[in-house]
Amino acid sequence: MMKKTYLMSCLALVFPGAGQAEPYGDPVRASQSDFGGTGLMQTPNARIAREGEFSVNYRDNDQYRFYSTSIGLFPWLEGTIRYTDVRTRKYSDNEAFSGDQSYKDKSFDFKIRLLEEDFIVPQVAFGKRDIAGTGLFDGEYLVASKYFGPLDVSFGMAWGYPGNSGNVRNPLCQVSDKYCTRAELNDAGDISFSDMFRGPAALFGGVEYQTPWQPLRLKLEYDGNDYRDDFAGRLQQSSHFNVGAVWRATDWAELNLSYERGNTLMAGFTLRTNFNDLRPALRDKPPAEYAPQPETAALSFTSAASQLTALKYDAGFDAPEIAQYGGTLYMSGEQYRYRDSREAVDRANRILANNLPAGVKTLSVTQTRDRMPMVTTQTDVAGLRRQLEGYPLGQETQPAQTRVEPVDTRLFSRGYRIKPERFSYSFAPTLAQSLGGPEDFYLFQAGLMSSARFWLTEHALLDGGIFTNLYNNYDKFNSSLLPSDSTLPRVRTHIRDYVSNDVYLNNLQANLFQPLGHGFYSQVYGGYLETMYAGVGAEVLWRPLDRSWALGADLNYVRQRDWNNMMRFADYSAPTGFVTAYWNPPVVNSLLMKVSVGQYLAKDKGVTVDVAKRFDSGITVGVWAALSNVSKEDYGEGGFSKGFYVSIPLDLMTISPNRNRAVVSWTPLTRDGGQMLGRKYQLYGITDDRERPVGQ
To answer: Is this prediction's pTM over 0.85?
Structure first.
């Protein structure tokens, strides 16, 4: 439930300046339902949000408040995360524990397009609602939608909650009696498909009408639910027909108003953007002008000095170094500015081409990260000159350029360089947050992380960070009253006790980074490794250059830090470690899948699966789940660990290019099973430059 993130929030991206979308009249821009996800009001349709479309939704009536986010992951798949505030029920009967707070429910939905619409055939989709929660709105549906001019007509069959009226007999009851009944509620956090297509079934349908006035859409639906056994209490239904309107106030905001069940008003709004369409609003200086100087016999101090300065401040290479050997001019440095490393290499080539010694036929640019070489890009000088000179006009060609294993210039004598700085520091706003807790729906802690790094040797780094609390509302947290329904050691559920400290040492560790060659990298580390644990460990990664896969392993021995005095230790220690496979399927190069197998902090063993989708803007949306050998009873509420995160390139929000990212993460319920060590440095992220650039 708790995650520490940069204070930057992806919600800022849905406001003005987020990029233009198609006219609202375009049928691709389907509107959101009450539950989140494309649909009418209470019922879904077969539409899928455009790939990359991200929406934040709020709906409110007398019984429920629905808070949801929905995203089009692919043209055929969308997902929704929803929190529901049940206004008619209390969180628990223990007022000392949860006070007067209303009941909160969390759930996940998905919808898959089965058939794409054409001139004759309607679009058909299958959806599952509330797959991870108590099942208050659990159900599934098959639905078809077809455009008839400004009308989008939908018709389908639903099972479970959206089909509670049972206006038709469940056709699968004729196959087996087991399909005639359905469990009422699940345990919180469970993901189960055992009740699929069971219980009552109902037909539903509706129409969405695009009025001649483009900002306005009207909706009419026939609801297949009768609300007799609703969790909020039996809800009176005067009519199965619901009517509503959607007004597009701006390109990024919609207001919704509907009259449902013949007696209830529902109102809300949707904020939206598209993660594929967002682009940085950069004010970067143009690349160096191509103005070649007369060739010199050899690289000189004067020409090298000006090149090094330009490489650092124009091309974005920290601690650049230049050396000439034979017919090759070598340059190396840590590229800190551009997400697309090709931009940095092209800028460096321009700078080097302006002051070439005689006889140089190849430029060799090596990118490093944390003082480990990552990749070398070799460029043919003759081809580069033809490109930069633009001759012959209309026949310009890209120079011959090859990415190869990094050249180790340490085998040569030292060239001209800007000496790397050994000490650096930074300050970053951070946010620790908790959603849906019993004391308050939103608990948070805003603070400042002060970090410093000092290189002890060429490859040995000392790193530390101090967190200072600026404001929080964790005084509402009643840790002594937190009910325990798990037999596992409390390896993570003390997290809110840790963040209650006003100032604490977040981490203080020594890392030894070592490239092993042929795509192998390693690190050894020790100290206070994260907020809750100290210890020692090692990691090795094999990441072949420009391949779609990698393989890594880490092994750690840690002790839990005492939340009352974080320089001391609690009475708990554990070995933990994983073997991790990484795969970026070539046919879907925007997808990264990680599978980790090993032992978690609570000494349970299992597998963590992480699937992340990267959009054209660089924003990454991921989900993960950890399944261990702990029984459901021993794990406690939630069944297993799972979560969702959004990683946002900060250059989408700044006017200058940079490679930093802000991570906004959400875990519906933090428990002690399936928990990994939160290591600050992980080799796969450090070696990102070895990934094949997009489009190559």
So the answer is: yes
